[in-house]
Amino acid sequence: MNKYRTHTCGELSIKDKNKKISLSGWINKKRDHGNLLFLDLRDNYGITQCVIDNTHQNFKELEKLPLESVIKIEGKVIERTKETLNKELNTGEIEISIISYEILGNTKELPMPVFSDQEYSEEIRLKYRFLDLRRKKIHQNIILRSKVISFIRSEMEKNGFLEFQTPILTSSSPEGARDFLVPSRLNPGKFYALPQAPQQFKQLIMVSGFDKYFQIAPCFRDEDARADRSPGEFYQLDLEMSFVEQEDVFEIVEKLMTNVFKKFSNKKMLYDKFPKISYSDAMIKYGTDKPDLRNPIIINQFTEVFKREDVSFDIFKKLVNKGSIVRGIVAKNTKDKPRSFFDGIDQWAKDQGASGLAYFTIEKDTELKGKGPVGKFFGQDSIKEIMKISNAEVGDSIFLACGKKGEVENILSMARDKIANDLNLINYDTFAFCWIVDYPMFEVDEKTKKITFSHNPFSMPQGNINKIDFSKPLEIKAYQYDIVCNGIELSSGAIRNHIPELMYKLFSIAGYNKKLVDEKFSGMINALSYGAPPHGGIAPGIDRIIMLLAGEKNIREVTMFPMNQNAQDLMMEAPSQITEEQLKELNLTFKKNK
Q1: Phi and psi at residue 87, in whole multiples of 5°?
Q2: CA 36, CA 62: separation in Å to the nearest integer?
Q3: Which of 91, 449, 570, 594 could form a disulfide with 126 if both were Cys (CB 3.0 to 4.6 A apart)?
Q4: pTM score, two decimals?
Q5: Interval 186-198: pLDDT, tens
């Protein structure tokens, strides 16, 4: 018999009445009623209430013990009175009459309470993460993470996938973010890179003749932190399949996501079959390639309206003549909203760095007209045209943005979410998945003005490869795709380019000559030259999946030991300085600033 416990703190029930038992755990809370001391004992599995009266020899000792002391209790299971039942606990029908106790672990004064989920500063929470993880909500999030990963592994195996581990020390490659570099002791002056993703290795696995691979893969990117992105490292479900087309990947991933989200959440799936939206349509309709489809608002194109004679809104008309575009969104049935509602949205847009949002409400007495600051600039025919384009009706309001394409997309994508939230249009008890497809192979870098890969450089271009017009690279689309849920990108994927000659050609457009491709991707390009199958894959982010399932807005809440915003581990004090001896072993020296 285990010397520390006969049961866990989450399993005793009325069926165990009158049993003599032993429990071990942390003191979660104490309630001193003078003649009785109630003590909640907590372990990984739950909480059990224990009680001792003031005539007991151990009463005063237990009364003085600080919260989070680790103790073993021996006692008898007794039934609670009807008035003291606790339906929120699995053990709520019983309590333990304490016979004896033993201290297993003492505690210092706590820097933060454990028994509540009260918010504390990031610095305190991350420095004392081992205490933070004892708190109920985050403890349950981490357990959820474990269960989800276990379920995913089981589902992947059912679908014929084999799990392999790829190297952690590898070579640097242009994946789109900064690499973490590791100096080599045995090869002075040379560096390994931690993998941003197992991209090349999983393709090499397909070239090696394995048909379906997966891995819960650690990835390392020297990126700034965001609410949905950890600095430094994250995990993804990395998968790759041979002899597949885009639809084959979609079928596997849709089935997996549906099973995972239905098993671990009671929220409704908005679509059984995930909609496919082209990248260009997504940018026009939603202003982003990460649309939240729970939001019914669609962005409309109004540029041509401002070329009409019965529109006298000169500020926008002059900008349109210089090449700007006008797009807008419809806020349904807002005729009775106060002026403060509209001015608030306009001011919000200015706070986001935009010039604001022009707006008017459609009214009708004898004829159609616009009410609001810019309504007088639109004639009846132009309002009819706006209504035709956007399916707007009398009583609806139109919010307009004018400017460069990227600026308009950015502000209206945010305004779309802002207005939907203000009007309570989003059903937060749903998951809305979609695929974003048909990404352009190349784009123009805003800073350098040079052509670069827009997505994944190893992707297969669409169409007959013998008829692709390489002289018009910005018109080439690729078999690249993202899976998005509730406005959060879970993953990017692609059908891979497995033809070396085609890879050289595409990389040359992005400024890589044959020699540089051979140097950067020597293992990949060499392997593809020995008979490579058509293959493709994707890599949904584990952290973001758990975020959605747990209903959390920050990835820190589902990560066991995250870094802070400055990529520092406050608990383990990393990154840390190293000794001169370690530098010498690595043939490195620090260049001191003057």
Answers
A1: -75, -10
A2: 11
A3: 570
A4: 0.91
A5: 999 999 999 999 9
